[in-house]
Specification:
This protein is mainly α and 172 residues long. The chain has 2 domains: 93 residues, Rossmann fold (3-Layer(aba) Sandwich); 61 residues. 52% of the residues lie in helices and 9% in strands. It is built from 6 helices and 3 strands. It has a 3-stranded parallel beta sheet with strand order 1-2-3, with helices on both faces. α1 packs parallel to α2 and α4 runs antiparallel to α5. The longest helix is centred in the last third of the chain and has 23 residues.
Amino acid sequence: MEKIGVERSKEKINEADLVLLMLDSSRELDEEDKEIISHIKDKKYIVLLNKSDLDGKINKDDLKELNSKYMINISVKNGEGINEVKTTIKELFFKGEINANNIIITNTRHKEALFRAKESIVSAIDVLNNTFAIDLASIDIRNAWSYLGEITGDSLEENIIDKIFKEFCLGK
């Protein structure tokens, strides 16, 4: 039965743009774990060593073929390391290391927020192309950021927009 699970995991790994492999760090790796580890090494991955709140029993030599840059100690129980996981995923995405060409949006609320964000960006571009009214464009950009924040949970820091427009200022 476990062999079927490993084969299904391999199929999903082959389809994935990014693999999140969660290992139980409170026990030694078994053969299935090692098989999955050998299967992900040519993919983009993040290894999550769960149960960091307990004594670790994983033999680090079993993980030596994996890039330690993408190995994060976490505890699902107390939330340790979760922000680091989110940050790492964002970094991989924005560095272009995750292929986002085939993203499918299944959440209607997210789809609507993306649509509104796109409309706001288009509006900002139109304003800048036709009137050079930076203040008006900044409203559209703030709106777009806000819509994206509905999806990511991030909020707009005022100093980011101010910095963008300070460096964009016409006549310099």
